[in-house]
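Bench log, entry 3. Co-assembly request; chain sequences pasted below exactly as received.
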Amino acid sequence: MTAFQLQCAACKIPLEGPDDPEPEDVLRCPRCGVEDRTDNVVAEVREYAKDRMAERVNTMLRDATRGKKFLDVVENPRPQRVYRFMIDLDLDG
Ligand SMILES: [Zn+2]
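Structure output for the full assembly:
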């Protein structure tokens, strides 16, 4: 049983692949056909999760400091990376 589902970022549906994929096994989106090796997918999803967490922290800081003149949150805008793969993170739960 997996704790989370690897998904296609464009279609937001689970990727298809072996039940217990090896790093070199290919995972594929059944709708748009985007595919990559499991190790590449996992690496990308890890980056995605890090980005999402950073966004979440930024939002929390912004909310926490809203209207307070003595605190300026310095944000570092980064170019939005486009991910092919994602996981369904439940950050708000
Ligand atoms: Zn897709």
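The chain has one domain: 6-87. The CA atoms of residues 68 and 75 lie 16 Å apart.
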